[in-house]
Design goal:
The complex is a heterodimer of chains A (361) and B (251).
Chain A: E1 9-13, H1 14-24, E2 29-32, H2 40-51, E3 55-58, H3 62-74, E4 79-83, H4 85-100, E5 105-111, H5 127-131, E6 142-144, H6 149-166, E7 169-175, H7 176-180, E8 182-186, E9 212-213, H8 220-236, E10 243-246, E11 253-256, H9 259-274, E12 279-284, E13 286-288, H10 292-301, E14 304-309, H11 315-323, E15 329-333, H12 342-360
Parallel strand pairs in A: 2-3, 2-4, 4-5, 5-7, 6-7, 11-12, 11-14, 14-15
Antiparallel strand pairs in A: 1-8, 6-13, 10-12
Helix pairs in contact in A: 1-2, 1-6, 3-4, 9-12, 10-11
Chain B: H1 23-37, E1 43-47, H2 55-58, E2 62-65, H3 71-81, E3 86-92, H4 93-99, H5 101-109, E4 115-120, E5 123-124, E6 130-131, H6 150-153, H7 159-164, E7 169-176, H8 180-198, E8 203-209, H9 213-216, H10 220-231, E9 238-241
Parallel strand pairs in B: 1-2, 1-3, 3-4, 4-8, 7-8
Antiparallel strand pairs in B: 5-6, 7-9
Helix pairs in contact in B: 1-8, 4-5
The chains are: A alpha/beta (361), B alpha/beta (251).
Chain lengths: 361, 251
């Protein structure tokens, strides 16, 4: 007898898998503006959203798009926008207002190289912008960093759930490689998650009290109370930290990498193991909250850490904070869209191990 | 016969606008229209930045406070998610005609079924009297201390006329709040703008020519005359775009 087909495995482009994840999560509103390398995502949703009773709207600018997100998400609906570095910079004003007003939504950044117009090749140069808030004022966004097409689907669903859970914007931080590559994906239905009711949503007051969604607190005491509330909320997100450990059990050198770079590093770890080097990998899946726990724990066992990024060194700061001086933290990065070869990474691994040994003499 | 009463949807909060400022009249006209159309329970308002942000204290409906200039984009998001509800924004001249030009032009071009109230008092009020995009030629402000010189600071923008050229605009009017006749016309225009939204005809906007006695350095009554003498030559009143078959009420 034929089995009921409940889960479909299909070959898909990363940007499209992300879009399917959004649909599975119940997102019915998308507002965006064209920018490479994320164009497949809006194009796909322009077709799929109307088929699912939703609205796709191309805005006049990234600024327009994020504010449309602000409006639609304020009604309690699940809403998304996507862009890449230069566009995400333009969205920051809106993201700050959305975070300050405590409205959930999902923002996708398929990173390209910068600064300025930079290039259109993959990059991880927006780590600081994503994990430090990015716009003005004192706020944070939840940041998820997929490393496969499957994770683009799964983590997009999670991004919506976390956004609703914390009434906060969350960001899916991918890169041009992930967005463009094809891999098989299981289009699993979104998990049923218990989430708070959206009593804050503005939909017309009806017979109830009028509601106000705002980030304006003119009285110093009121603003501080608001800042303290936000700060406690960000602290409470610590439990959402997610990561993957690979061959870390007996590792002397721990590599730290996320997204596409983590895939390259995994290959280098395997190669180094073949050479008899005790190395492992910690791959942060959430970048905010940053998975400090495994790094702190491994800081007691490892002689050194090596952070590898497609940037000139941004996540390395968080690795240093997490390791808290227990072991030296080295960095290796490439930029402009260039990936290091496995051989080059093995060379960096050997160099880091030698330097760590030298330091201990 | 009762000829005037406090609109039902106005809260008990006392207006905090400066003495002689016509924001109070604009606020009341919006409240009256919402009452008369019976839509207050199904209305979402979008607040801009500047003096107009205070509106949420006075009108008893749901509100979202938007970033400077972005109210039409926020209103677009609300209306797309809640097409049956009445959605309006209340913006000043710096908000709508300077920092928010892209948002207003494209909301109109898309024919968004939202209503915008554009309070034009030719100056930045909340920040202390700087030149606005609508500051008239020769007008003294803190950033045009010898008067606005077009050679240096450009010309005032006539937003109503500009937006009326767009296909998506269904109703565009300019009214003034300086005398009873003009206020009566303004009342009708405000009501019409909401009706055009309810009928799903497209984008609607009413520009309300207003005073700012504080930053104009004028007494309240003088400020009312200054509208007539200084502003109306640059900003003529009228309905620049009307749905087919609708007769003009603003002259």
């Amino acid at each position: 007898m034929r089995e009921d087909k409940v889960v479909e495995k299909v070959l898909m482009k990363g940007n499209e898998a992300l879009a399917e994840g959004a649909l599975a999560a119940g997102c019915r509103y998308f507002f965006g503006y064209p920018i490479t390398p994320q164009n497949e995502l809006p194009a796909y949703l322009a077709k799929r959203l109307p088929e699912n009773g939703g609205v796709f709207l191309q805005a006049e600018s990234e600024i327009g798009a994020i504010n449309m997100v602000f409006g639609a998400a304020s009604t309690g609906e699940r809403v998304m926008t996507s862009s890449s570095g230069p566009g995400i910079s333009l969205k920051q004003e809106g993201i700050s207002y959305i975070a300050g007003s405590e409205v959930p939504c999902v923002i996708v950044n398929i990173m390209r190289g910068g600064p300025g117009l930079g290039g259109i090749q993959p990059s991880q140069a927006d780590y600081f912008q994503a994990t430090r808030g990015g716009g003005h004022g004192d706020y944070r966004t939840l940041v998820l960093a997929p490393a496969s097409v499957q994770e683009l689907y799964d983590l997009t669903i999670l991004a919506f759930d976390l956004a609703d859970k914390y009434q906060n914007p969350s960001m899916v931080l991918g890169d041009g490689v992930l967005g463009q590559m094809m891999e098989p994906v299981l289009l699993k239905p979104a998990p049923k998650t218990e989430l708070p009711e959206k009593t804050w949503a503005v939909r017309g007051k009806g017979s109830g009290e009028a509601k106000l969604i705002t980030s304006l607190y003119l009285e110093p005491e009121c603003l501080e109370v608001h800042n303290l509330k936000l700060s406690r909320k960000y602290e409470s997100m610590a439990g959402e930290a997610r990561w993957e450990e690979y061959l870390t059990e007996d590792a002397e050198l721990i590599l730290v990498a996320y997204g596409t770079m983590a895939r390259v590093v995994k290959g280098a770890v395997r190669r180094a193991r073949e050479l008899g080097l005790k190395v492992g990998l910690v791959r942060p899946i959430t970048l905010y909250p940053f998975p400090e726990e495994p790094l702190l724990k491994l800081g007691k066992q490892a002689t050194a850490f090596l952070c590898v990024e497609m940037s000139m060194g941004q996540m390395v700061d968080d690795v240093k904070i997490a390791v808290a001086g227990r072991a030296p933290v080295f960095f290796y990065g490439r930029a402009g869209g260039i990936f290091p070869t496995t051989a080059k990474l093995v060379e960096e691994i050997e160099k880091a191990m030698a330097e760590a040994q030298e330091a201990r003499k | 016969m009762k000829v005037a009463a406090r609109p039902k949807c106005l809260t008990q909060q006392q207006f905090s606008y400066c003495p002689g400022c016509t924001h109070g009249i604009g606020t009341r006209l919006v409240a009256e229209a919402l009452d008369e159309l019976g839509v207050i329970e199904n209305t979402v308002g979008v607040l801009a930045v500047g003096c107009s942000v205070m509106l949420y204290k006075f009108i008893d409906c749901d509100f979202i406070q938007a970033p400077h200039g972005r109210a039409p984009a926020v209103a677009t998001g609300v209306k797309r998610a809640l097409p049956q509800q009445t959605v309006f924004a209340y913006q000043g001249d710096g908000d709508l005609a300077a920092i928010g030009t892209a948002e207003i032009v494209h909301a109109a071009a898309r024919g968004e079924k939202i209503t915008i109230f554009f309070v034009n008092n030719a100056i930045y009020g909340m920040t202390g009297g700087q030149m606005a995009p609508t500051t008239v030629e020769g007008q003294v402000t803190t950033t045009t201390p010898t008067g606005r010189d077009p050679a240096l600071a450009g010309y005032p923008i006539q937003m109503a006329e500009m937006l009326a050229t767009l296909e998506g605009s269904a109703y565009i009017a300019r009214v003034a709040l300086n005398n009873p006749k003009n206020v009566r016309q303004a009342k009708r225009a405000v009501q019409r703008a909401f009706e055009v939204q309810q009928a799903g005809l497209g984008f609607s906007l009413v520009e309300l020519i207003s005073t700012c006695p504080t930053n104009w350095g004028a007494k309240p009554v003088e400020a009312l005359s200054l509208i007539e003498e200084q502003m109306l030559p640059t900003y003529p009143l009228g309905e620049f775009k009307l749905p087919e078959g609708m007769k003009a009420v603003v002259r």
